[in-house]
């Protein structure tokens, strides 16, 4: 499948006139049947009216169409040959019977306000092998089978029996999962009029960007898309590999930037790393990396600020740090989180890549439980993709004249901008002032420039704990048990080991309405939010905004708006009241 798709793509690059046949003939033989369903001239004419570059537009349609075509084919394969699961012709389309595995599940959000509640919930989740989706200082989201809910409630204090709600109320989980795959209407190749119009019609409000971003895309589309970017924009884009996955896939990346030839360029190339998909099911992180990459690539030479940014900095975009997990989330389990390495337990695969970096690795707590969703492996860097990616980054620094100045690790969900450290709240990062100032600036840029969503700013460790709301006085708030270990994160490693000055983990949309199953209409708005943040980061690094910029412009009122907001927004961390929080751990389990 990969081979044939690459062959076809290179054909398409060489001979654009062949393109129109590609989307609908999945075997690439010229059967008359396939021709019959080829988009007619009027469809192509409409497509050509867009102002994006035509070769790119056509190839994107070819790529998208290929997937839709295969999806249609897969459906018929499923019905005619259900038993034969080993002969998938594609890997992206879930089988209906696999969707059934989620049919009886719900996601519940529990309000947490006391130590008792937190520890009871931690224990119960452990006993019942529950999948903790997300948590922060206010709530914990847990996926659970409906018929286990009574058992769970039975283990919890009476206060928690009431203070929970089901997420995705009007939608059951299986439907939300199905909805997150490319739209079914797009796969209806036998209905020519409807096959393209629902997503391409310019009048649809959601069509604001490229159709590539109308849907989540599988790796088999993303990878050729990246190749295409590099081949179309040779002046400022290169496709590179930042490692090889456990199952042998490349970890693809785009390096975007312009090396001016004048002599006063600094010898070390300042570089910003933007990564997504280290947790497979967080699909919005992958699309957002691609959206930001595409926006910068496409605006170079057209938008002055972006041209300037790319002349001064390189960006390396890694949309799928965990390609094996990502593919698995498309073909087998939409809610898969870890990578796909085998563990000591035969039935539990996968290491949590964001727990397997060696800085403050906390694997002791999960070592005994490879089934945990946050299993850190047996030793630091057990997670193959984490280890190879880190090796790549180190080698770039040591041997390739690269100076990583920024690291944005995108995740979902909860709309938070998190700065180091993740592993502990008791160790303050040496550059905390810069980190907080910039994080608040990023959040503000997101909120203001295009009316994006509100993102909270906090340190990564605080994003991972719950605090009591019992007391009226914020200072009196109790720190509740940690929801799970948070050492060994990419954030801390890049900040501490690689000395990346501006390192953040950003949790994207939403705040729990759909969680990981964020509807595709959010792909572009979320991408724009992060683009705004990255443009702010660029201006900050260039000294155009922020405290340093204010000093230059002789403004004398020192407290920035951001600094004021900070005092209001930041939760008070009450160290003395901490009650042995490390005793409790609410493991992500399935
Ligand atoms: C959870 O707490 C928030 C405020 O902290 C409140 O608005 C909400 O109603 C609570 N939900 C439940 C189910 O108790
Ligand atoms: C390290 O970087 C150099 C320079 O780009 C490259 O030639 C070499 O292959 C890299 N080594 C590894 C192990 O990736």
Q: Can you give keywords for this protein?
A:
binds 2-acetamido-2-deoxy-beta-D-glucopyranose, alpha/beta, disordered C terminus, Aminopeptidase, disordered N terminus, 590 residues, eight-stranded mixed beta sheet, single chain
Short description:
It contains 21 helices and 14 strands. The chain starts with a helix and ends in a 21-residue tail after the last helix.
What is the helical fraction, as a range of percent?
Answer: 25-40%
Mean pLDDT: 75
Structural class: alpha/beta
As a whole number of angstroms, the C-alpha radius of gyration is 24 Å
Bound molecules: 2-acetamido-2-deoxy-beta-D-glucopyranose
Can you tell me the overall shape? globular
CATH superfamily grouping of the domain at 271-583: Zn peptidases
Strand line-up in the sheet with most strands:
5-6-8-7-9-14-10-11
**The CATH top-level class label of the domain at 271-583:** Alpha Beta
Beta-strand residue percentage: 5-15%
Q: Could you say what the CATH architecture of the domain at 271-583 is?
A: 3-Layer(aba) Sandwich
Number of helices: 21
- What is the terminal separation in angstroms? 31 Å
CATH fold title of the domain at 271-583: Aminopeptidase
Largest β-sheet summary? 8 strands, mixed
Low-confidence stretches: 1-60, 66-95, 185-207, 466-479, 554-590
The total count of strands amounts to 14
Organism: Pleomassaria siparia CBS 279.74
Region (Disordered): 25-48, 184-203, 553-590
GO molecular function: metallocarboxypeptidase activity; zinc ion binding
Subcellular location: Secreted; Vacuole
């Amino acid at each position: 499948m990969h081979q044939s798709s690459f062959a076809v793509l290179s054909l398409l690059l060489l001979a654009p006139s062949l393109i129109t046949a590609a989307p609908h003939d999945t075997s690439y033989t010229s059967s008359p049947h396939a021709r019959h369903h080829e988009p007619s001239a009027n469809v192509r004419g409409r497509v050509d009216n867009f102002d994006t570059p035509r070769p790119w537009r056509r190839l994107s349609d070819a790529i998208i169409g290929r997937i839709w075509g295969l999806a249609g084919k897969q459906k018929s394969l499923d019905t005619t040959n259900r038993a034969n699961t080993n002969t998938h012709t594609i890997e992206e389309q879930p089988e209906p019977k696999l969707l059934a595995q989620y049919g009886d599940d719900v996601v519940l959000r529990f309000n947490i306000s006391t130590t008792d509640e937190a520890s009871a919930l931690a224990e119960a989740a452990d006993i019942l092998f529950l999948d903790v989706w997300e948590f922060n200082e206010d709530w914990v989201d847990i996926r659970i089978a409906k018929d286990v809910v009574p058992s769970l409630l039975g283990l919890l204090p009476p206060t928690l029996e009431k203070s929970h709600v089901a997420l995705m109320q009007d939608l059951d989980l299986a439907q939300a999962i199905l909805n997150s795959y490319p739209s079914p209407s797009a796969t209806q190749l036998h209905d020519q009029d409807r096959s393209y119009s629902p997503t391409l019609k310019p009048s649809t409000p959601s069509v604001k960007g490229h159709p590539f971003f109308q849907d989540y895309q599988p790796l088999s589309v993303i990878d050729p898309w990246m190749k295409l970017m590099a081949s179309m924009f040779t002046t400022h884009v290169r496709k590179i590999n930042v490692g090889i996955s456990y199952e042998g896939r490349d970890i693809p990346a785009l390096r975007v930037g312009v090396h001016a030839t004048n002599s006063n360029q600094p010898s070390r190339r300042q570089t910003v790393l933007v990564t997504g998909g280290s947790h497979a099911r967080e699909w919005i992180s992958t699309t957002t990396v691609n959206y930001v990459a595409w926006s910068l690539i496409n605006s170079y030479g057209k938008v002055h600020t972006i041209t300037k940014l790319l002349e001064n900095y390189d960006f390396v975009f890694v949309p799928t740090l965990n390609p094996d997990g990502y593919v698995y989330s498309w073909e087998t389990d939409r809610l898969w989180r870890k990578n796909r390495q085998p563990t000591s337990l035969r039935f539990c695969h996968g290491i949590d890549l964001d727990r397997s970096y060696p800085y403050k690795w906390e694997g002791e707590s999960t070592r005994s439980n490879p089934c945990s969703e946050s299993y850190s492996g047996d030793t630091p860097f057990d997670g193959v993709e984490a280890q190879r990616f880190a090796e790549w980054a180190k080698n770039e620094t040591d041997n390739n004249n690269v100076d990583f100045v920024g690291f944005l690790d995108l995740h979902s969900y909860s709309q938070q901008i998190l700065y180091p450290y993740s592993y502990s709240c008791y160790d303050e990062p040496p550059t905390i002032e810069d980190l907080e100032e910039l994080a608040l600036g990023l959040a503000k840029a997101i909120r203001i420039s295009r009316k994006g969503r509100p993102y909270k700013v906090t340190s990564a460790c605080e994003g991972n704990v719950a605090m009591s709301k019992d007391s009226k006085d914020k200072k009196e708030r109790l720190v509740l048990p940690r929801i799970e270990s948070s050492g060994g994160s990419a954030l801390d490693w890049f900040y501490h080991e690689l000395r990346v000055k501006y390192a953040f983990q950003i949790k994207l949309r939403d705040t729990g309405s759909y969680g990981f199953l964020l509807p595709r209409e959010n792909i572009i708005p979320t991408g724009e939010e992060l683009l705004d943040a990255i443009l702010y980061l660029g201006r900050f690094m260039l000294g155009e905004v922020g405290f340093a910029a204010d000093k230059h412009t002789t403004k004398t009122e020192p407290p920035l708006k951001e600094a004021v907001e900070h005092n209001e927004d930041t939760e008070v961390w009450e160290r003395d009241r901490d009650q042995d929080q490390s005793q409790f751990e609410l493991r992500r389990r399935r």
